[in-house]
Design brief:
The complex is a heterodimer of chains A (about 260) and B (about 325). By secondary structure, chain A is α/β, with parallel strands linked by helices. Chain A contains ten helices and ten strands. Chain A folds into two domains: about 170 residues, Rossmann fold, CATH 3.40.50; about 80 residues, no CATH class. In chain B, about 50% of the residues are buried. The chains are: A alpha/beta (about 260), B mainly alpha (about 325).
Amino acid sequence: MSAPLLHLENATMQFGGLKCVSDLSFAVGTGELIGLIGPNGAGKTTVFNLITGVYRPTLGNITFAGKSVVGHRPYRITSRGIARTFQNIRLFGSLSVFENVRTACNMHLRHGISHALMRGPKFAAENRETECFVDELLTIFGLTAARDEPCRNLPYGDQRRLEIVRALATRPKLLLLDEPAAGMNPTEKNELMKLIRFTQEKFGLAVLLVEHDMKVVMGICQRIIVLDYGRKIAEGTPAQIRSDPKVIAAYLGKEAA
Amino acid sequence: MIERTKILLLVAVLASAAISLFAGQINPYYYDILISIGINIILATSLNLVNGYTGQFSLGHAGFMAAGAYGSAWLSLAFGYVLGTSAAGTTTMFVLALTTGGLIAALAGLAVGIPSLRLRGDYLAIVTLGFNEIIKGVIQNAEPLGAQRGLGGMGQHTNFFWTFALAALTVYVVLNLVHSTYGSGFLAVRDDEIAAEAMGINTTKYKVLAFVIGAFFAGVAGGLYAHFKQFIHPEGFNFLRSVDIVVMVILGGMGSTAGVILAAILLTILPEGLRALAHQPWLPDSLRPIAENRMILYSLLLIILMITRPQGLFGGPGLKRRKA
């Protein structure tokens, strides 16, 4: 296997005396779909926050495409090719569906503030380009009908989808999905699974998926990493994870295992 | 769409020029109010970029206005003779003075923008308010700027054309910014800073930029004011002046340029209108003291508005959500 896209080496995150993530190492290769699971409070979202630069790891290193991302501001890390969605939806509430996605194109702009003010031909051309790009994304994900709606008017499932579309508009190489199936009914979950797989293939992405719903995780992930109390307790294919006694103990207690 | 904003700017500038030709026939009292309206439009629109569109609560806009007013007035007084007294000479000098005033204010905006990275909400409001007082305090003690005596003697170069052409330019800049992909960063910072960062937006840059651009236009407004009144005093740029501008933004609706312009017009006319009302012969004598104490009516009006329409006259959903 060539050098992994994302590599965590002994990453540790300590808040005072509390070790949320300790000594965590794993790798995500290009185009892989990896699941990150664990009981509540296992540190899954903290791992996302470490990777995206919201927190700086107390110890250890995180490299993306061969370069360390530790100590960089989140927007820098995003511009290097990591995009994420949030556990509790964080759309830009006062903007329309279209504007939400367009905002994510901001960092790819080749023109600066002067062009935005003068509105010359260069601005117009790039503006058209951005609009086409956004509209194409919205079409792919079936959100065209809601294009100019305020995003908060969308049904819950569509808001989740919009968050994924917005993350894709940053043109990432790695997509981090934080509990995308939370609060969805079984039909929506099935659609979501199809959507994630489709996205991964269509855009050639690596995906790291945090999810509580085992059906979703087991259904689409090639490899699964299990966290408990901030430590990695298991890693393997869905079949291996399902029968791992440590995993069962973590989820159901020692007796069950 | 793109061309439309440019055409509108051109129309507004030409209209200001055309009306300016007849400015001599306007009653001086009304003319004074008109110029005040124009200056207030610049102030409110530029503050709206900071408070309304970027969601950073600044309470020190009068401080930037002071920086611009004193900067431009000082330049006019110290170097006004350099370009001579011809029409072209004085106009060039005036434009230079306004630009300098704007740039000095923008520099002050940069200095305030930096604490804004660490603070938000009420805390930021307090810091900006303190900054306003600092600028005022510096001027009060600066002998070359007239200190407590105020500064006077600038030529009256501000006219209808300059005021409204620059008001149109302010509106043009703010609208073009917030309606572009580039400017969507401002709105993203307001709506959700963490999500904005995650979408690759440098929130630091946008917050500072909002302060710098907002301050620049406040400085230009200050320059216009200085060259209209021909006398400026530190007390004219106190906390209450800042509050006046904030009230225009809140009344008009945070993040609504049309609303803020309307509020700037309304709140400039209203105190004058109430003054006129107090002298109407048909007004019962019992009501006269109320109309005379127009500030009471004025505040009552604001209270009623805040109860019945907290998002402002034209406010979108932006403000309601900011509480979360």
